[in-house]
Specification:
This protein is of the alpha/beta class and 192 residues long. Among the domains are: 55 residues, Roll (2,3-Dihydroxybiphenyl 1,2-Dioxygenase, domain 1), CATH 3.10.180; 63 residues, Roll (2,3-Dihydroxybiphenyl 1,2-Dioxygenase, domain 1). 20% of the residues lie in helices and 25% in strands. The strands form 2 sheets. It has a 4-stranded mixed sheet with strand order 1-4-3-2, with helices on one face. A 4-stranded mixed sheet has the order 5-8-7-6, covered by helices on one side.
Length: 192
């Protein structure tokens, strides 16, 4: 049997993030959190499932809740009482107004931690908090950071609002070309 290196294959035909699946102690509590705090909408899930759960959708992807009320502290991926650590595993959502998010979290009595990332004069605000099962959520204005591939110095992206060449350099690799085409289409969609 011949073993081929992963690098010999082209990129997989991925389109986007489809969903994130989350184990929870109470589907009802988690549904309320993802609906009221993050604005997800409950959607129909296949009736063939023989376990308690829920599917939610918004912002182009879904969150699948899978109930496991028998969590003990060794099974739980996160423990609610642990401190909010921005360097921990988390799901991040792009948002337009971090200040509004903070006000909403304060109104609801939720604990959170903020952070500020600065790079070459660009500032990104972040707010981190836990869902009912202790999973970390981040909301940020990360679109402020330009996407610049490290693999090719001759193939850089401009941040939104700056001029942009329609042609992609032949010096760019496959992924850089895909990213440039995607960015180009996104910019055309936002422009009109």
């Amino acid at each position: 049997m011949e073993i081929k290196e992963v690098g010999n294959y082209g990129a997989l035909p991925l389109l986007s993030l489809n969903h994130v699946s989350v184990l929870c102690r109470s589907v009802l509590d988690s549904m309320r959190f993802y609906e009221e705090i993050l604005g997800f909408v409950l959607i129909k899930r296949p009736s063939s499932f023989k376990f308690n759960g829920a599917w939610l959708y918004n912002y182009g992807f879904g969150i699948h809740l899978l109930e496991n009320p028998n969590y003990d502290e060794f099974d739980a991926p996160m423990i609610e009482s642990r401190p909010i650590n921005p360097k921990d595993n988390h799901i991040s959502f792009q948002c337009t107004d971090v200040g509004l998010v903070i006000s909403r979290l304060e109104d609801m009595g939720m604990k959170y931690v903020t952070a500020l990332v600065e790079d070459e004069g660009i500032k990104v605000e972040q707010v981190f908090f836990h869902d009912p099962d202790g999973y970390m959520i981040e909301l940020c204005n990360c679109e402020n950071i330009p996407i610049v591939p490290i693999s090719s110095s001759s193939c850089s992206f401009k941040s939104r609002g700056q001029s942009f060449k329609k042609t992609v350099s032949n010096k760019c690799g496959f992924m850089e070309n895909v990213m440039m085409r995607t960015l180009s289409m996104d910019m055309m969609n936002f422009a009109f």
